[in-house]
Amino acid sequence: MNSPGVDRSDIDNALRRLGGGHSNFLRKTPLFKLPGMALGLNCREVWLKFEHLQVGGSFKARGMLNRMLANKIPASGVIIASGGNAGIAAAAAARSLEVLCEVFVPLLASQAKRERLRELGATVIVTGAAYSEAQQACLARQRATGALLMHAYDQVEVVAGAATLAAEIEVEAGLPDSVLVSVGGGGLIAGMAAWFENRSRIVALEPALAPTLFQARQAGRPVDVAVSGIAADSLGAKRIGTIAWALSQRHVNDALLLSDESIRAAQLWLWTELKLAVEPAAALGLAALQSGVYQPGTDETVCLILCGANVDPATLSAGRHPGPGSCHPGPDPGSRAMSPLDCGSGPQ
After folding, report:
1. Cross-strand pairs, 47
2. Which of 122, 147, 152, 330 is surrounded by the fewest CB atoms within 10 Å?
């Protein structure tokens, strides 16, 4: 099981590091199973991986801790540029290891994420209109201090850490037929692709206003793209990562785009129907199913990664949701709209 940039030994090492003596930091997150009909879908089953319950509120904790454990950390600590989630994960991991952490965030990073970083003990520098500008400032500071440089998505240890999430899914529930994965810089989808390879169908999902992988596939190479929209604070990378690009060419079947409206509707549905407070980036999988952008087969098991929970709860109580009947395709007109909780197997 070898993939460009990340191979099975990298993932096995990550599993060993993250399991050995650090099980009290990382969490084995629940996996919730629903029959497709509970969502108004014709597929066999939908799995929801509750990675938003991970330490720091996102899957990023796996890669950040793996990177730190794989390297000697100098007295100046660690340093990272992040739209929020990777920085929060790095700060949480650094605190657990009792090392310093400095985080550069762009101006579009939410106030909630900035406050959380400070609560975790990180020094926060807000600079640049987009992630790429924060990254340049971070690199300049790293050269001056010698701190261990952490990257939000484009380092082998970070991707291998994300791959442990895929391994956990397979141990918990077996192989899904398809995995729908939100893409920003590509750390999560790179990890999914490195582990599952071609054993499951890997589908990349991006906001139409932040199409880094989609545009790279169109151009045949990574390119800079303009990013904006509802999920830009966590999916706001201007260019797909080099590791994700290499892996996606071999193991990612589709790259699909979603409107901000569909993402927002899915986010509100998760809150209203399942009481799951997730950020927009975590709602792309459900949005793809609800909108019909991705239409699973009748016997298909689809896995969705709820990848982040760093959201202001006030933004969830302010809107309306589409309801289960808006999923594509919808239930028969005369049927009762089922609550997902009527049919779910519960956390696995």
Report:
1. 33, 303
2. 330
